[in-house]
Design brief:
disordered N terminus, Ribonucleotide Reductase, subunit A, two-stranded antiparallel ribbon, single chain, 335 residues, mainly alpha, 12 helices
Length: 335
């Protein structure tokens, strides 16, 4: 008689929900390649690892607190963040379809196909958590678009055009990887980390959702960085071209005015946490700094510093440290 042996799949630490590093630490220090992170890796590490038991981004063991379902500044702050992030992820999914179409080899085809799935799944989990907050399901996406129509027009549309132009119109795959991993997703890393830390104690479901999304972003950022690094090792004559893409990205950001979008929801968040000061008394946003001692401005500055530190680490790793001063010339972004 044939005996079937079921083996527990080993989940790589960077994809393990409980043991993966934080986004900023992982993206700054881990090394993953496009060859490693193929479709088989995604099924083993992500589908059967990070996402195991979390079809909607969380296990369901935690519940959204009732106070997060009641009208007020705290619910409005999270609703705005989820709406904007849903639009971010929708835009990323649409852009990445061009990366899949333009992939120069099988390794790139497989990795960017899995990243596209990651982004559209993020789009789903951020939408779904709006339902947890009590927003009605009927017409949800229409309301998200209405809420974020100015943000979409002034921030997302120019970014989406920038990446699409490089990958589809110019046929520059390496430049497109630079644009997405450094100029676009790299800028979002600090806000993703901050979101996980801000909401984890106030809304454990939102914290769990943010944690899973952050684990995916570690993979996206590290693979993108290693791809550029390996390309420049093989083609050192293209350093100038990569720097030119970074320069174009910096010039794009100089035309965008995202601070008020962020500060509006941070001010709502600040107002919303006041009734919860006693519950937050000992909660530290990071070691040595309590959440209740921060302000919208200080959180903006913290995220900007995190962005700089992450960008510096990845640019040195890619072998283009001269790009540090180039990107530092732009105003801080956290989205």
């Amino acid at each position: 008689m044939t005996q079937t042996v079921h083996r527990e799949l080993e989940v790589p630490v960077e994809a393990d929900f409980d043991h993966a590093p934080g986004l900023l630490d992982g993206a700054a220090n881990l090394e993953l390649t496009v060859e490693q992170c193929n479709v088989a890796y995604w099924f083993r590490a992500v589908a059967q690892g990070t996402l195991k038991g979390r079809p909607s981004g969380h296990t369901g063991e935690q519940q959204t607190p009732q106070y997060m379902r009641e009208p007020g500044p705290l619910r409005e702050a999270l609703s705005l963040e989820l709406s904007y992030r849903a639009l971010d992820e929708e835009a990323a999914t649409r852009v990445l379809s061009h990366y899949v179409a333009a992939a120069p080899g099988v390794a790139e085809l497989e990795f960017y196909s899995t990243q596209l799935i990651d982004e559209v799944r993020h789009h789903q989990i951020f939408r779904d958590h709006l339902l947890d907050l009590g927003h009605p399901a009927e017409g949800l996406m229409d309301r998200i678009r209405e809420t974020g129509k100015v943000y979409q027009r002034e921030i997302l549309d120019p970014i989406q055009r920038f990446a699409t132009q490089i990958v589809r119109d110019e046929g520059d795959f390496v430049g497109a990887v630079v644009a997405f991993a450094i100029i676009i997703e790299g800028v979002l890393a600090a806000s993703t980390e901050l979101s996980e830390r801000k909401w984890g104690v106030l809304d454990p479901v939102a914290g769990e959702i943010a944690r899973g999304a952050a684990i995916d972003e570690i993979r996206h950022l590290t693979v993108g960085s290693s791809y550029v690094r390996e390309h420049l090792i093989r083609h050192p004559d293209e350093r100038g071209h990569v720097l030119d893409v970074l320069r174009r990205g910096r010039e794009l950001w100089e035309t965008l005015h995202d601070r008020e979008f962020v500060m509006h929801r941070e001010r709502l968040f600040q107002e919303g946490i006041e009734p919860h000061r006693s519950a937050l008394q000992d909660y530290e946003l990071f070691p040595g700094r309590r959440l209740i001692d921060t302000t919208p401005e200080s959180r903006w500055e913290l995220a900007a510093r995190w962005n700089d530190e992450l960008a510096d680490a990845r640019l040195v790793y890619m072998g283009i440290p001269e790009a540090i001063d180039l990107l530092r010339a732009q105003a801080p972004r956290i989205l």
